[in-house]
Give the backbone structure.
Amino acid sequence: MVLSCRQDAGSTLNTFSVSTLSWTVVSPLVTNNLVDNHARVSVPDAKQRWLELLTAALRDGTFVKLTLSRPFGADASLKNVFVRPVSLRAGQRFSFVFRHATRDITKNLTREAGLTRIDTLLNGEFRAANLFTTGQSAQLELRDGQKPRLVLGQPRHASAPEPIHDRARKLLIDAKQSPWLHALGVTTAEGKVCVGMEAKFRQINKFVEILRSLLGRTGRERADAVPLAESAASRRLSARSLTLVDMGCGKGYLTFAAYDLLRRTGWTEATVRGIEARSELVELCHRSARECGFGGLQFEAGTIESTSLDRVDVLVALHACDTATDDAIAKGVKAGAALILVAPCCHKELRPQLRPPPVLAETLKHGILRERQAEFVTDALRAALLEWAGYDTKVFEFISTEHTAKNLMIVAVKRERTADRDQLERWVKDLAAFYGIRTQRLAGQFGFELDKPRMNTNEHE
């Protein structure tokens, strides 16, 4: 097959003709004169043509970046993929950023592996691709039931970027502009992160990044934000007054970070409470808050179980041990929290109860697998019970396991719309029954009887 390109006199559009002998491509990367803004190209395989343009841009050194969008794959959390060139010690690479609903995953691939991965992603996960070079832009559209379409346009970049791998990332919590970090021992007096506290500093910034996207006060949505549903909850969290409670706050790293974020992003009447059982940590946090002039930040001694909550907008409980996470969730729901964030740990309660189906019984004789299964069942039940209690939930990796093994986070946003509560009840009970679970702390707090038979009116008709 032969594909040739010409520009008709007096016309700004490229004309393509096809015969069935061989395939020859005249690349519009050679000159901008052949590229008209939004010229539509109809070829037998638009995706193949787009990939050839990408290959040509890599060969010519004119590649700037590309974006994959309009996802339709099995992973509903994957929203976009961004690809740019980077220069590593091992050589030139593609830097892939897989943007999920709550996190970014970066992978560096060789050019050959990168091209293969892009081709695979376009075959089953994305319906649109935008290529940007210094010679042109090329938009590929893969449409259901219609022929693919390739649209060429004028270049948006005059020069290719420097393929620098390590680019400074702007952090929400600036070590040099946050004296509370020094008061808590995270940074030195000069604003440098202390040796051994690097992982904690990254955890703090990841937490406020998640919290900011959930609160939605930045004026623009990040593509990887975890959006609040348009509901009474989201409208309530748009007010200037907000109450956040951090249950089991420890040394207060994330409590201070939350208050600092709120005061810098428009909540002029924000109140943040830290609850901690160890009195020496409460005193340290009290003193540090006074020294930093954080008048709306309060700390009090007490346990999660014993603390009384009247009204809460946001409830946080990170690394509350075992059933203390359930107590925190239950108190947040009872207090009408619009947003709940928990990072559970020490999943001990359900392990003795596990009665897996026969197909899993032999596998779960191994202690490590049984432990991980207990963690999965516990957090799956928590998310399911929160859905039943009127919340939309997301469960995701909070921060990389190289920083902490306690890295799973459950986010719950109070919904306004009605849901099929009977169906949600069946979901919870079926999940519990599958693993032989008869009691669980959060279910008990909600008055939800896991082992009580469901009533199906159709069975009695």
About this structure: The chain has two domains: 36-153, 179-446. The domain at 179-446 is CATH 3.40.50.150 (Rossmann fold). The CA atoms of residues 252 and 285 lie 6 Å apart.
